[in-house]
Fold thioredoxin-dependent peroxiredoxin.
Amino acid sequence: MKTLQAGDNAPQFSLQNQDDQTVSLSDFKGKKVLVYFYPKAMTPGCTVQAQGLRDVNQELQDKNVVVLGISPDAVKRLPKFIEKENLNFTLLSDEDHAVADAFGVWGPKKFMGKEYDGIHRLTFLIDENGVVEHVFNKFKTKDHHTVVLDYLNS
């Protein structure tokens, strides 16, 4: 697993969103894009993380930042998550984990003694020119949004 670092060019991608429409990274040229990878919609940690981003999304928008959440969930699962948690940002389906692979966030994990491949919970801030500005890799799900805002405000 070779994770992208600050200074790397972000891989260009196109994925289906919660409305089954194609969304591409290039759609957001001139804006910063916060790409956050999460394992599975409607699970406790992913819900807390999404709620935090929902609650600060206006502050992020005021800083010219767009939020994209990416998971291996099927497209049909995403609208349920958005509706249930009243999310105000775009979720993208990466079922074949090709984008997760490109960012270097798909790899071996351990949970309750079992090993499997899955998404590592990492977040990338991509600048207006498509370059990774910062990688958020040390946070608790409940503090994720605060860590992001602290970085943007520093």
Summary: Residues 44-62 form the longest helix (19 residues).
